[in-house]
Amino acid sequence: MLKTQTEIEQENLELMLTKGMNEYQDSKQKGNLSDIKACNYIIPYYVGDLANSLGLYTNEILQGKAKIKALPAKMLQLLDPLVVAHHTVRTVVNTSHFTDRRITKIATTLANFLETEYTIVHLEKKDESLKTALVGFVQGTNYSDVRKIKMTKDLISKYHKDISKKETSFMQLALKAIQVLCSTYPVINNKIAPPLCDLRNTSRDKLVEIRSWFHIKLKELITENDGSILGTYHTPMVERPLPWTSLEGGGFYTPRFKYPLIQTTVDRQEYRGLKPERTLQAVNRLQDTKWRINQRILEVMESATNSELSWGDLPTPYDAKLYLTPCPHEDVPNEHLTEEQKEDRKVWRQQASVHYKEQASRESKVLALRMSILEAKRFRKYDSIYFAYFLDFRGRAYPKATFLSPQGTDYVKSLLQFSEGKRIETEEQYKFFCMQGANTFGHGLEKKTFAEKVQWVKDNHHAIIKTANNPYEQTGLWHEADEEPWLFLAFCFEYRDYHESPDTFESRLAVAMDGSCNGLQHLSAILLDEVGGESVNLTNKSVKGDIYSDVRDETLKLLEASSEPLARSLVEFGITRKAVKRPVMIVPYAGTQRACRRYIDEQFKKEGGQEVFGERYKEALTLYTATVWEAINIKILKGREIMSYLSTVAREIIKETRSNTICWTTPNGFPVKQKRVETQNTTIETPLGFTVKEKGSFRTVLQNYTEDTDIRAHATGIAPNFVHSLDACHLQETVNNMSEGCSYAMIHDSFGVHVADSPELFKVLRQVFYKMYKDQTVLNNFITEQPIEITESQPSSGTLELSNVLEDEFFFS
Q: Residue 42 falls within a domain, yes or no?
């Protein structure tokens, strides 16, 4: 029986609460209860208060004022009271399921943690790089804290016996810390809280007993206010989302799932009375789009997932151990190793860390895939489903969805199709149909002309139909796709159906048109940059402009003209498009030369740069980076000028107004409010890399959170956020200017509609872009809107004839 939207939301709430309680029970039994979110509302206060008490006790020891036998001062100086408090509270909480509650039993567990942390400090003094490699290796695993400690102790005991010495003082410190915790009364929400635990005397030993209020409070935190502390689980809607008539009240139906339209750190009062009509209209149109589950894709994907097949780049489980060779010189103690052998072991640990990080990353991706499939199965019986939307502070639109979403990965998007079918009736519509197939297949086809894409589809007619008839055949064409294989498979199914019944077939495919480095398209249009505009397809050329290839070619030209000794070697080695792509991509988003170097370093190594240049690799990398950066400045001249100008203006605004927010309005009336405040970094890590969560210690009480503006963050953020607000405006106005009755698959710089509506979208998105920039008022409007008179002179405009974008085939294609 189909459910109403209210019933779906109630069901989602019950799933959230059940998941929260299951996590509580599972964590309690597994001994990692302190990791659940509810504990963050309680135990940090005990950590902070206990750290204060231990700090005072340490001072007494060092000053000779302790009334009882002092612990070794050396150890107390090396072990931060916050580190001791962190492990004490977590150990007491995590052992709450122990049948044996003797203080000596729990203190032994705690002492193991403290001893290992203490040993890591010694290891760092002996060999900092070795300590870094070891901590990176251990924290790169997905093991529990207890297992990480055991692994670390085993490694140190085996390879560093000279610093692995058991000391009774750890047990003494553990006993002392537990005793102090039992008399700790922190202040939580302006109320004195009771101790977390008690010591109860028995005939044999003292027992550490968690007070009953703690578990009662955890359950209350999980369930109270409809699980308000739990992450909200958003799914597709089975009824049309409530329309937005203001910045509040739209989207979901029930109170627990309500949210403000604009997700921002700015005080809600700042938006009081604002009603951006054009934005509200666009969001409502996005929400009105009817979707449904693509059953054929779901069937193939579920089969592949169940068999752990990585078809179409599906994430599959990853076991790090299968990719690791045995640790070199495993049976030799560290003190007996040669320097070369030590280096071998260090390299192995670094490599092992990479594999364990990959394992953790895969686990989350596989979980997301399985949840997306579960959601698709849950909603496949509905003829129509919808998505609620929200905006970020720049006006960018996002579906309010946890897993299944029109803005997901290739395989997630492929699980969705428009609910309404529309006929393909003209050759022009069919041209866009073929464009979708070629673009999603990849292999460079996305750079080709319409005619070439249509011809490719025609040439592969039989292979496409064969793939649709048997997608499980691993030699099928869709398995060769390297761009968006699952969306290509969705195209194959429709292509076959169309050619079987061309007169009656109705397409539900979303045909996407993607911008060419869209951030640079906006930057080039703002000041009519004729050089950058040509590279990002604003000039109506017969071949597609490629900014990445242009920067690569410019880099080669600069190197060939250079007198630097390594320039010729770099030219002979080869400058690739792939190496310059990411540095170019980050330019509109305040990318720095340091980030440019990092990305080039990564690709340079993949291409064998280290082997070729050997000891001169860093020198070659420096020249490579500097030349690419110079080439970027040549090819994106006006864009760089705008970004530099906006950064200077942002500093001027903040210094004059002393505000923490810079405001502007997009061409369609959306109010952007960029807030950047200084924050104190109070994150503390133990020597072994565990994050300490605490509140109320002397150390952090002195670090007051302020509303002081962060000038540097404003200066670096203003250009990318300005560009994002403009691409958001472009998307919104494109939606608003389309005919009534269209369905939309929109993702910032990728606009999608039915095949039948694609010719209209092709024209409208160009007309909207041209209208935004034709009068050259965008930058000036930003300046005149500021509360002060800007003294910095605006950069001059170029000579780009922007009207050419109306005919440019490759602008969005």
A: yes
